[in-house]
Design brief:
Two copies of one chain form a homodimer. Chain A is α/β, with parallel strands linked by helices and about 400 residues long. Chain A has twelve helices and 14 strands. In chain A, helix 7 links the parallel strand 10 and strand 11. Chains A, B: InterPro entries: Ser/Thr_Dehydratase, TrpB-like_PALP, TrpB-like_PALP_sf.
Chain lengths: ~400, ~400
């Protein structure tokens, strides 16, 4: 299966199915063909495989099992989250098979690897991506290696380990491991599905395609902006690949504003955006409750910067207090999301004051992963005896006729 | 909105929207009208609201938010779970908004309550149902009361409490509370969405409708059996309501075998089935890792018994060792499910030896809730230094050309 690759940055093309980065240093994309995109939005989306044709890439067929179930997540209107006149919709990526958006890229990557006759995959992650890759490998009987930091928490080990991959704790600079693993994997014939490799990016592009399709229901209405957490920049890259292709194919008149959000404690892309830089400088990387997006040296950071600028969007950082408050607001709307996802809601105020969003705008927040309820919510309870149950509603607010 | 109720047991009918149980003691159903069922299976199912018309009940419109996202979960083929010649498909109910099948019944119940002008709901649960009801109430601004046992675990309190319902710890017999709450709620104008009330059952019926629709893709092919965990019997009741209506409407020639599974340590319905009884006798109720289905006095137990008998299905119990092994097998197929869901796979061997299932049968296992990875999986790891990464695949099984 010869697959063309293109560089978003320098325009280079290659037919090497194993290349993931360009000589210019930037990540490669699978080549898209806007002419191959269907002329209209899909009537319904049950999984990412219904959205993928709109990306115009050579798409693999998913193997049976969990990969067929990736994507097709709901987009819901959540009016109690409306902020400063901005109407909020939420894309519930936590309803993917392993609980996060990562299943989309994994499903594409696994399907493409199998079609290429490869049976060995890996990833560098101790979070959502590790769970996702291990699960999809298990479902297909692929050999799977997951590189985790040596000091990984036991709870993370259990969540990944239940799918029984080869788990390797690595001592040393975990950030650089991203590139090392791609190289070692290529030499050994092990396809590393890291966060911004072309197969993963193509799969992740379906989040945006679905969101736009579900918002408009084929009627030509689209959100004014997509607000997405950014870590490595892989999802940002995917989102831009999607909206560029949809625009080129004539399905979108103009792209929505792409707004990316980081935790302020580790926000190298937001800082570069604020400075007006074209490239991202690695950050020191402080602690944050949104640890799953704390990437001090994001491999697709330049790509996220360019995507935000090209669409009149922005990249902003939000602090932990705001993230915590936003997480509680999400729960108050019946939606349990992880702190990294809560950043999207926390960012609206800033995006309004910066003039990126206006009152009356409709935005889609991409809630990338589900919440676990273990983030120290203080819970108040009452206590009664069953024999006194008849008095339960006597003193309750708004009780009537009890 | 006058809504007719029917009793599956004695055939009684009532127009009282607040009645949930018949004078004969059995749970009431919303009346179904097979004439009102569309003449064909839906072309696609994005949520339960696409499946609900096939139940032929007077269906409410969901309020915006999480209720619109209930159901529409994937059905996946998992060939690595095939057992003794039985081909396995899995319905991934853990991909509902709050992580379990309960969202279907809650979404219906909340929508129906709002249409009836009611704003106060409640439930008796410390598990999936409590999370679900609290989340849907939060999304709609409804007043919500959750009755939990006095000795509830902190982790459960946090999972429910994040949606900020009124949480009441009740001392005394928690099993009987099910009925007490219905009575107290009715007097106080608080609609308790307990596990077998007619609104919840109507919503839960969509699990079976979706499964049958997805399996056949409108081509007239259906699974030979549905295998479902049973606790209160509410889901079993719902499943039977669905297949009876679909059969009456001419969409099914004959119902699939309905097989229900309990944990052997607390299996009053399975014991009644084995004895050939028509009614369920309350059990003592021992400890099991599948604690979320350990219901010693199931309010719709008789209904589950009748449904299994009427469809040539069965009710069986499986022990904790088998449940644990089945949970590991699910994970080995990339599917993390809770122990109560793992019972379905554990049951196949028994259903085969009892002659309920045959080699060559295709079954759909309903995995009612997601797994959390906290069930004590032993995880093996290796450890290397980043500087030695080049040797990563040297000694690995199947390594080539490294």
């Amino acid at each position: 299966m010869p697959v063309n690759r293109t560089c978003w940055n320098c325009g280079a093309r290659t037919d090497d199915d194993h290349r993931v980065r360009c000589d210019c240093g930037e990540p490669l994309w699978l080549a898209t063909d806007p002419e191959a995109v269907p002329g209209e939005w899909p009537a319904s989306i049950e999984s990412m495989w219904d959205a993928l044709p709109l990306l115009g890439v050579e798409a693999p067929t998913p193997p049976p099992g969990v990969s067929t179930a990736a994507g097709g997540t709901p987009l819901v209107r959540a009016d109690s989250l409306d902020t400063e006149g901005v109407a909020v919709h939420v894309k519930l990526e936590g309803l993917n098979p392993t609980g996060s958006f990562k299943d989309r890229g994994t499903a594409f990557g696994v399907a493409a690897a199998l079609e290429a006759g490869e049976t060995r995959i890996g990833t560098v992650s101790h979070g959502n991506m590790a769970e996702s890759v291990a699960a999809h490998a298990a479902a297909t009987g692929m050999d799977c290696t997951v590189l985790v930091p040596a000091d990984i928490a036991d709870s993370r080990l259990a969540a990944i380990g239940r799918y029984d991959p080869r788990l390797v704790r690595v001592d040393g600079d975990y950030g650089r491991l991203y590139y090392d693993a791609l190289e070692v994997g290529r030499e050994a014939g092990v396809r590393f599905l890291n966060s911004d490799v072309p197969w993963r990016v193509a799969g992740q592009a379906t989040t945006a395609i679905e969101t736009l399709a579900q918002f408009g229901r084929g009627e030509g209405e689209f959100p004014d902006a997509l607000v997405i957490p950014v870590s490595s920049g892989g999802h940002a890259s995917a989102t831009w690949q999607a909206v560029r292709t949809l625009t080129a194919a004539g399905l979108l008149d103009e792209p929505p504003k792409l707004c990316f959000v980081q935790a302020a404690a580790c926000a190298p892309i937001a800082e570069a955006f604020a400075r007006g830089d074209d490239t991202v400088t690695p950050a020191e990387g402080g602690e944050t409750i949104a640890y799953s997006i704390a990437n001090a040296d994001p491999p697709s950071g330049n790509r996220a910067l360019a995507a935000a600028r090209a669409t009149d969007g922005a990249v902003v950082g939000v602090d932990d207090d705001a993230i915590k408050r936003a997480g509680e607001q999400f729960a108050g709307a019946g939606l349990a999301v992880e702190p990294s996802s809560a950043t999207t809601l926390a960012a609206i105020e800033r995006l309004r004051s910066d003039g990126v969003l206006d009152a009356g705008d409709e935005v889609a927040l991409v809630a990338t992963g589900r919440g676990f309820g273990d983030d120290g919510v203080a819970v108040e309870t009452e206590r009664i005896d069953r024999s006194a149950l008849g008095t339960l509603f006597d003193a309750a607010p708004g009780a009537e006729g009890a």
